[in-house]
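Supplementary Data S3. Sequence and structure tokens for construct A.
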Amino acid sequence: MTAEYDALCTNQTWDLVPRDGSQNLVGCKWIYRIKYHLDGSLDWYKAHLVAKGFHQRPGWDYSAMFSPMVKLVIVRLVLALAVSLGWCIRQLDINNAFILDVIYLLVYVDDIIIIGSPQQQVLQVIQQLATRFSLKDLGNLSYFLGVKVDPHLQGLFLSQRKYILDILSRAQMAESKAISTPMCATTTLIRYSGESLVSLTEYRTLAGSLQYLSLTRPDVAFTVHRLSQFMHAPTTTHWNALKRLLRYLASTVHHGIVVHKSSPFILHGYSDADWAGDKDDYVSTTGYLLYMG
């Protein structure tokens, strides 16, 4: 907490001003994060001082909203570009995240990836950032946004083993019987198949958590997106399909995606459409895929 507060003061995050009766005071609170190794042992913890945004009044405290978050597909694309060009990839830990009045930094993000070539220029950029912000140089990229990054003979191997194990543990399916496919090819999921679930929270929580796996597990993307279409009213049939997906993940927990350094950086696009293929309302469905490399 002291390190966080000192960094905020050093960066001149705020100015003390006299209180005006017409102002709406926005409170703040401390939040904490504990980080573990893959074996479950405690690594370190940190504290953040954050504003209580829900205290703000639209039209009074602000007139517009924005969310400066990077999409996961962009992270994968940038890594693929760096590997293909043989660039240096370094990871930084920002001691506190905030918005500057001139430039906007990533908000509520602890880690930053610095990519470039040659390595000496990357180190110079890191040194320049360190003169302005409180940060730690974590060296070569190894663990970012819950994704494990390992060197590979053909490039980089990205996996989310710990994230999958956490989901399986939460669902009490870590020791479930293995299965070879994420979804049954002969089963068609429709809106009103099966009986309504008594509790919807567990289904919604697990299905929502699985969406983050799209970064390293494209093999489950279709199944996850299909199950997410029944969030509003899941049934026992949908729940059984979700458990089947968890069984598949339990048997493929070490799977991931390899970013190949030899892949040609060419853009490919594919599209397709069916005719009245939706079994609930019989509308047509159009889809597209874009591949880079």
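Construct B, processed identically:
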Amino acid sequence: MFSLASRRLVNAATNNSRFFSSTAVMGKKVAVLGAAGGIGQPLSLLLKLSPNVSELSCYDIVGTPGVAADLSHIPTASSVTGNLPAAGSWPPSHNTGIEAALTGASVVVIPAGVPRKPGMTRDDLFNTNAGIVKGLVEACADFCPDAVLAIISNPVNSTVPIAAEVLKKKGVYNPKKLCGVTTLDVCRANTFVAASMGKDPKDVNVTVIGGHAGITILPLFSQVPGFSPSDEDREALTVRTQFGGDEVVKAKAGAGSATLSMAYAGYLFTEEVLRAMNGADDVVQCAFVESSLTDAPFFSSPCKFGPDGVTEVMGFGEISAYEQKWMDQMLPDLKKQIQKGIDFANQ
């Protein structure tokens, strides 16, 4: 489901003339909240290359004017702005910096927050990142209530429910427009399976369901045509997909988490949302959304996207006995992580 977007990125990088074609008039304003961070900078770079973006709005608590100035020298048709939180004033005023960043945005991508370090789980990030996401989504509710929100900030299993509760309190919640970005799990599964099969990753499409942390990530390898791994290989690939983030955290030895691959995944997700907004009727990608597929109130599964966000939360088909074992093990943890987010937003 991501091979088309991947090819578009390659074409864009090698043929700048496309940015000055008629497709530019269909561009949208995209805001990146946390644009100066480890994910935000490469994500903003990739979005600057997209012909579907007419204005790239960068926001962070530090560094965004410099990031925006740097990006503005790239010869593509989109404009770039960089906003910081507004300075205090008297009488007290709201944050005009984030208002400028968000007003008119069609899509808001939120990678803001602190990264994982060795030994940390995504849940360890909760106390810091939960507050950050809550504040940013409150601003989204005020200044771009109709935008599609793409939540990257971990732990996604909790931050998406936080966002939903904030939007409900503001009276602007639309489940079609709130998504947790689980695309990196799909990218990892595609990469690992393609290597195992000796295929090009663009020719592999693994459905990954559940959540976006550890055992809540469930790749459905049984649905990959022609893939018949041994029990040992299937177990290894499943666990590597679930804990691929730990692999990167350890390899970076305290210097960060998965930033470049997450930026690429966030770009792919956003690009497909924008294509659907522009009328493409073939956009199906996995996302963590409000769902009735299981007894968990949020669940990641294939979703069809249209001009107004998610148009259909699709089923995930038949799963193997092995995958059902993981499903049974995963759901209690997923529901607890979702409830943790709900409780935080309502405390």
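The two ends are 39 Å apart (CA to CA). The chain has eleven helices and eleven strands.
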